[in-house]
Amino acid sequence: MTYSLQWELDSIYAGGASSPQLKQELKQAEELISKLRAMLKEADALQYDRVVEQTRIVEEVLSILREADSFTACLMAQNMFDKEAVLLNDRMKNLSASYTTVLTEYDRNLCDIENEQWERFLSQPELQPLAYNLNERRDLAKHKMAPELEALAADLAIDGYHGWGDFYNTIVSRMTFTAEDGSELSAGQMSNRLDDRDREKRGAAFEQWEKGWQEQADLLTDTLNHLSGFRLKLYQNRGWSSYLEEPLHMNRMSEKTLQAMWQAVEKGKQLLIPYFKRKAKLLGVDKLQWHDVEAPLATASSTMSFDEAATFIIEQFGSFSSELADFAQEAFEKRWIEAEDRPGKRPGGFCTSLPRSKETRIFMTYSGTASNVSTLAHELGHAYHQHVMKDMPPLTQEYAMNVAETASTFAEMIVSDRALQRAQSKEEKLALVDDKIQRAVAFYMNIHARFIFESAMYEKRAEGPLTTEALNELMVAAQKEAFLDQLSLYHPHFWAAKLHFYLTDVPFYNFPYTFGYLFSAGIYKRALKEGSSFAASYDALLQDTGRLQVEELAKKHLAVDLTKTDFWEEGASLVAEDVQLFLTLTEEKLD
Fold this sequence. Notes:
two-stranded antiparallel sheet, zinc
């Protein structure tokens, strides 16, 4: 089977950003928002049948905006120079702000319903399936500003807060790097050069990468200062004392759970020190440099074509669940994946949901590395998560990032473990276990460095704007702490190069990755223990991710307490076996 490297978008909205169907649906959303706004002002707005109708409109607009927003993101990712897509994105932000404004009024109305009456409402068949989500909205509204102030903040954010977030994309779209043959590379293409097997070429690429971000650093410093400053001022006006309050709420987890997880990670990362020391010896250096951490070893296996990767992933998914394998095959066959290595694409990868089409789309730049195969499996895990929820009410499909990363990382684990088990040669096993350990390094160290940096940055930003030099210093200090000072060269401008720091819809786009990695490790252990019968239980867990706190989710489906370190330490210690295998496989290479 030959699979296309380019995705298909016309079945969603034919005609790209100028799609007549898209325009019609956005007009419908505008009309529904106006209708909802009028309903909320009516005298009988708090009566049961009116609340049911209001909620129906809330869900209908949500599904339209999610579909259109995902489509817009696809257009902008596949071509950073698509000016029509940029204009469409501006319209989406304005429409989303209008929706946010009316949601603020809707949430406040929910607060005005007496508790006893509210409980009766939620016991009725129309609202009972949404009980968790509606309670969540009602409770959060009590901790925000007055509706008119929240509405004003949302309106001002369009050209302020979100505008600065979009400016990051503008800066990156103008950046170019030079390949060995003199051709120009986009940031997305250049990032793939950082994993070159040739250490000299890799080092030269990293030097050029750092220089490129240094040249844009002043613009990016302004951008990050404005984004963080807006957030802090908004939190202050809401009466929130901690910059973690919003990300923790969005991830439906407690700070106690977050701290328990990081405590376990601090222990787990100690197990990686022998890996760092051995890899440095294999590369003939005293200490690894930043660009060495994720680099493949010189003896690693050859690259894998996209078709080979697709066949391999489908096969490995099938060893866990026929439903997961069938879904992955459908994604490849129906061209839901954009993987072509070409200029003009934005860097990174993502999976985005299309709730009205009941489909997903995956974006990445595929060059055949083991890391690329892992990314592909990772994004398919995201897609399957949405697939099992596609027939649920829209509000219950709004799951948090940390549990989203659970599904994706679980899919990665299936592929990496099966690949390691079936590897024939010592060299192939070495390449695979190295890639597997690198993921632990990413979640225990790289992600932790981002969390440490962002925490320090917000604390300093509360005192005033930061300079480029200050951001560099915070970044290197965070990397040294997170990597246990195991590197001889760090990445000062990582804060500039990483898109996640500039996303306006999700603050602290870091710790959910580590949560997902360790939480999925616990799920994976359960899957190995129970065998094929666990597939149905896994689907049930995924379906609950949009309607339970993570602590409740873990207690219900795994019978564990996430506020204790035990569960997290058990997951974090799993890397020890992989490190030992790595040391055994590389022993001969030192002779």
